[in-house]
């Protein structure tokens, strides 16, 4: 019966034009298996072996340069992903050499001048320059590369020459760290800038993860390979754990533990309320360190345990990071869930359920952006984690790495600024009497006093009182009116006086006189003895000793929302 339908089979992706998008990428493996079965029946040829991490041969460079790059690639102990990325960048250097310096074909020919020329070239690079295949760069071709990319180019170059010199493959003609250092103009544009997902979008994604159902999942062939329970716990793990996609894919059976008051308890214990139990998640050896344990929301722990109860028995699988054979939590039909599955399937499904786009102003919503979002929320909480606590929760070796994930929000910064009381610390408030009769009658316009600053022992009628250098310890110039004088008593007896408050900014010496007591006040008076008053005379010329009574300060309670 199969023979009658063979002519209906579409061509395999390898036989199609590379620009034909009718067959989705995630169906490639299925068509590959079908063609192998049909080939076994003798109706077609075997399909070409699919690409599984094999790097294409380096083209466009001198043969000698390509051989050096391949030799380094096969010797370096960096991770496979980093080595492959460096190999791609080093091949671009070879094409640049072939274009700009064809006489240089080997690393042994590099000098400090060559390094300087390459650093300058990197600063001017654009997307699509010196690439082997330009198809994947069509949308952004011609645009300047980002400062982060420029730094990556120079990092790969430094690593290449440093290794060659350390392994004594080439002589030391220059120091790669200095000759290929990142220029200040580029380094100044680098720094912590976590791509946090906006709070409103993140809240919708959380709701989608908590309410996702079988109908919300894609109906592609690859997705039918996994049961709904597995996809649900994958969604919750991404939303609540703050893990890298590689760490999620490598979680092991039994990774959840429970404790109460520091003592282990079973997950289904009836003796402890769910809100009082602490859920601990064991994280395997990861990108920057060894295995560690972190607290997570009990909701995630319950979901993982529910999946463990339903999970069919699976063979032990190789953990490529540690070389151990372990029971992977996310495995089905003797196959592990790929670390790219969260980005390719889970996140688009949650975005569709939540009614939000898969991209925002900071780019695509990815698994790693959830890590930055959770870290920033923990850092800006009402009772926030410290940087070192967050470092331990994320599993970083250095707090410097944690700074690339935790971002202080403007609200948190504004609250901290207000709590610091910088403005209030340098400003004091005093009472001022406003003679409304002098204002309404026009006497104030003709020069009569109408503002009386209450100094405690008298009044100051100087209009620009807050600018007077003697405001904290009055020198009793002609603008001064004692309270016990007849003029002062008549003023206080007036009916049409309006009491108001005025803010007076203080210098450091004046603030010290207020806060530190008599010694600081005496020091202030000594400094002001020859400083002119608003009338032009100095306290020494006036001959009246300045009062030791400080300016009376009115306490003002400012409400904080």
From TrEMBL:
The record's region (Disordered) falls at 1-20
Recorded hits in InterPro entries, A to Z, give: DNA_brk_join_enz (IPR011010), Integrase-like_cat_sf (IPR013762), Integrase_catalytic (IPR002104), Tyrosine_recombinase_XerCD (IPR050090)
Does the keyword Protease belong to this entry? no
Q: Which UniProt keywords apply?
A: DNA recombination, DNA-binding
Q: Which GO terms describe its molecular function?
A: DNA binding
Give the GO terms filed under biological process for this record: DNA integration; DNA recombination
The protein's superkingdom reads Bacteria
Q: Where is the Tyr recombinase domain?
A: 192-418
| Gene3D superfamilies listed in its UniProt record | Intergrase catalytic core (1.10.443.10)
- Pfam families registered for this protein in UniProt: Phage_integrase (PF00589)
Q: Which family does it belong to?
A: Belongs to the 'phage' integrase family.
Q: What is this protein called?
A: Tyr recombinase domain-containing protein
Instruction: Please give the organism.
Output: Streptomyces antimycoticus
């Amino acid at each position: 019966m199969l023979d009658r339908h063979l002519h209906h089979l579409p061509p395999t992706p390898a036989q199609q034009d590379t620009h034909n998008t009718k067959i989705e990428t995630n169906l490639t493996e299925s068509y590959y298996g079908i063609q192998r079965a049909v080939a076994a029946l003798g109706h077609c040829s075997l399909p070409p072996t699919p690409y599984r991490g094999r790097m294409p041969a380096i083209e466009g460079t001198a043969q000698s340069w390509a051989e050096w790059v391949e030799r380094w690639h096969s010797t370096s102990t960096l991770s496979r992903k980093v080595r492959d990325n460096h190999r791609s960048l080093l091949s671009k250097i070879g094409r640049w050499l072939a274009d700009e310096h064809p006489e240089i074909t080997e690393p042994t020919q590099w000098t400090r001048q060559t390094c300087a020329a390459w650093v300058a070239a990197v600063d001017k690079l654009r997307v699509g320059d010196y690439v082997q295949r330009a198809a994947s760069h069509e949308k952004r071709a011609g645009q300047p590369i980002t400062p982060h990319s420029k730094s990556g180019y120079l990092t790969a170059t430094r690593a290449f020459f440093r290794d060659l010199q350390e392994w004594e493959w080439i002589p030391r003609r220059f120091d790669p760290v200095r000759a290929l250092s990142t220029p200040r103009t580029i380094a100044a544009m680098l720094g912590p800038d976590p791509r946090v997902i906006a709070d409103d979008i993140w809240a919708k994604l959380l709701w989608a993860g908590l309410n996702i159902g079988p109908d919300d999942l894609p109906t592609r062939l690859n997705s039918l390979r996994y049961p709904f329970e597995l996809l649900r716990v994958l969604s919750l793990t991404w939303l609540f754990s703050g893990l890298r996609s590689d760490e999620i894919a490598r979680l092991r059976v039994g990774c959840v533990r429970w404790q109460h008051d520091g003592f282990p308890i079973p997950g289904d214990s009836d003796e402890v309320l769910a809100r009082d139990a602490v859920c601990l998640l064991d994280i395997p050896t990861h990108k920057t360190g060894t295995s560690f344990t972190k607290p997570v929301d009990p909701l995630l722990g319950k979901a993982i345990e529910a999946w463990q109860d339903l999970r069919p028995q699976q063979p032990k699988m190789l953990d490529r990071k540690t070389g151990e054979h372990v029971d992977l939590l996310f495995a089905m039909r003797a196959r592990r869930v790929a670390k790219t599955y969260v980005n390719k399937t889970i996140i688009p499904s949650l975005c569709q359920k939540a009614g939000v786009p898969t991209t925002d102003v900071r780019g695509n919503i990815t698994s790693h952006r959830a890590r930055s979002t959770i870290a920033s929320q923990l850092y800006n909480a009402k009772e926030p984690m410290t940087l070192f606590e967050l470092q331990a929760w994320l599993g970083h070796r250095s707090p410097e790495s944690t700074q690339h994930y935790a971002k202080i929000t403007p609200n948190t910064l504004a609250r901290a600024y207000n709590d610091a009381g910088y403005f209030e610390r340098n400003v004091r408030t005093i009472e001022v009497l406003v003679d409304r009769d002098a204002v309404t009658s026009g006497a104030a316009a003709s020069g009569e006093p109408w503002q009386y600053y209450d100094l405690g022992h008298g009044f100051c009628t100087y209009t620009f009182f807050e600018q007077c250098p003697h405001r904290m310890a009055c020198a009793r110039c002609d603008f001064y009116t004692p309270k016990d004088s007849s003029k002062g008593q008549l003023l206080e007896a007036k009916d049409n006086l309006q009491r108001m408050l005025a803010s007076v900014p203080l210098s450091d010496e004046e603030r010290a006189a207020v806060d530190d007591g008599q010694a600081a006040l005496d020091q202030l008076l000594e400094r002001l003895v020859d400083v002119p008053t608003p009338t032009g005379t100095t306290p020494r010329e006036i001959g009246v000793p300045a009062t030791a009574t400080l300016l009376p300060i009115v306490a003002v309670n400012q409400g904080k929302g």
